[in-house]
Amino acid sequence: MINKYENLKETVAPNVFTQGQKVEVEIYAFTNLGAKVAINDEYTGLVYGTQIYDDYQEGQKLDAYISLVREDGKIDISLQPQKAQLVSLTAEKILEHLKAAGGKSWLNDKSSPDNIRKMFQVSKLVFKQALGSLYKQHKIVITDKGISLIEK
To answer: pTM of this prediction?
Structure first.
């Protein structure tokens, strides 16, 4: 049987991809560094373990983003969009979460990184930045007991 991943290109020429570009990936192996992925069924890339916020399986297909094309041509992949876009998407997820929960949530800027990761699949830093954005837009109130939607 032929391994469908053995013909993937290990390196890419400059300017084939741009940083932040959305690509399709399929996870094909896990290593001590993270997850090896097939990019657009043509190249191989790596998602570092520190960037993985969910349980993924080999064979799983996902939308991902070019994080970096290194000088040696190897490709680093992120499963999340660039930070500004990620903060904006997380803010939208928080609003959806609040609406579904009747306008209140026990999560706040003091919540544990594990609880935040389980609920929103992002780091605590991104979560706090999203909360800050919503707070500045006067969409939420942050208290010691959690966050609440501001009714208008």
So the answer is: 0.59
Question: How far is Cα 45 from Cα 29, in angstroms, rounded to an integer?
Answer: 11
DSSP alpha helices (H): ranges in the chain?
83-100, 113-120, 124-136
Region class of 29: left (phi > 0), else alpha (psi between -120 and 50), else beta: beta
pLDDT of residue 1: 47
pLDDT of residue 2: 52
Sign of the dihedral through C-alpha 51, 53, 148, 84: positive
Instruction: Catalogue all structural domains in the chain, each as residue range(s) with its CATH number.
Output: 22-78 (2.40.50.140), 83-149 (1.10.10.10)
End-to-end Cα spacing for the chain: 62
For residue 144, the one-letter residue type is D
Percent of the chain with pLDDT over 90: 63
